[in-house]
Amino acid sequence: MEHRGLDADGYIEREGALGQVQAEFRPVVAAARERIAEAYGRRLHSAYLYGSLPRGTARPGLSDLDLLLALHREPSEEDRDAAEVLSRGLDEDFPEIEGAGILLYGKDTLLSEQERYDLGWFLACLCTPLLGADLAEHLPRYRPDGLLARETNGDLADVLPDWRAKVQAASAPEDYRRLSRAFARRLVRAGFTLVMPRWGGWTSDLTESAEIFGAYYPERAAQMRDAAAVALDPVADPAVLRTYIEDLGPWLADEYTARHGPKAPRS
Questions:
Q1: pLDDT at residue 266, as a whole number
Q2: How far is CA 151 from the centre of its chain?
Q3: Is the pTM of this model over 0.70?
């Protein structure tokens, strides 16, 4: 029987492990652990690694370092400034990564009912413990169902205006590369979660996600395959961004809302 990222009971298995981090990335992970503890001290509840590094699929010089930090209280401006300094320092000191990103939340938010099927699921299924007590122990197991689809990517229509503003403000090739990567990643992931309940499984692999989507929407399959390619190798072409904000993005947002409904409003 095909595995599809689920355990024997049909729940999404937690992906990634520190043991899967490739040798060339272990020094940056060790430095991140040490610097996080130094920067946040007692304010830190726990820290997590996610993305290609703990999945063992990172590419030297191309992949970024992705971190989630859970604080004992909601983050302050000082906490956010520390995250910015920390991410910039890791990026500058380790050429093996192309940027470092830090998500910062209070633990009560991560464990809240409101975030149970979004940030909570993200932590429990896609994040690898790096420091501190694992908050996933306080979260349920998750199935690849319509509720999870709605709460993870049911807000695509809400983010499109912001995307359009960012494209209008962009001018340099590096701006277009950065936006193409971010937009393409979000579109491919939304395309996958759109069909996830029908497919009945989970994957974080963007190429595989695009192929699974294309089996259900063959008329959009080529567009999604192209987006998956851009997500892995971004381009400095504003025309690509226009197709995302004028065609694929609006279509996907409408189809998502029609099938799963909008994401629950956040307070």
A1: 84
A2: 14
A3: yes
